[in-house]
Amino acid sequence: MTRGAKEITTDADAPTDLVGFVSLRLGGLVALKIQEAFGGRQVYVPSSPEPHNIFSKLVGQENAEIVASEFGSGQFDVSSGPAGRAALIREACLTDRSAGDIAKVFGCSSRWVRMKRAKLRREGLIK
Question: How many whole angstroms separate alpha carbon 79 and alpha carbon 66?
Fold first, then answer.
């Protein structure tokens, strides 16, 4: 069964969007690639990804298979704009990756990443 935009997950902690799932499962860099390539549009994730599929070419064969088997297949909306990018950076800030690594991946300053982490600490989301 596919899990598209109309379907609701029963796991409250599981992301319901493709970019969110990819960010948590495969990392912010892969999620950013998807967002940059398909932001504001839909992308088709086949149930059995083949190497020639555009999604497989973008994220890699192994990653495409992970998405298809763990998240689902079908047409998925991909968020665009700064709000989507900010959400990816926020998710990355919740990991133990260094501010420099996160800044490099997302093309922002490490100072900005440290400021975001400080805000997450004030909100009690990280230590």
Answer: 20
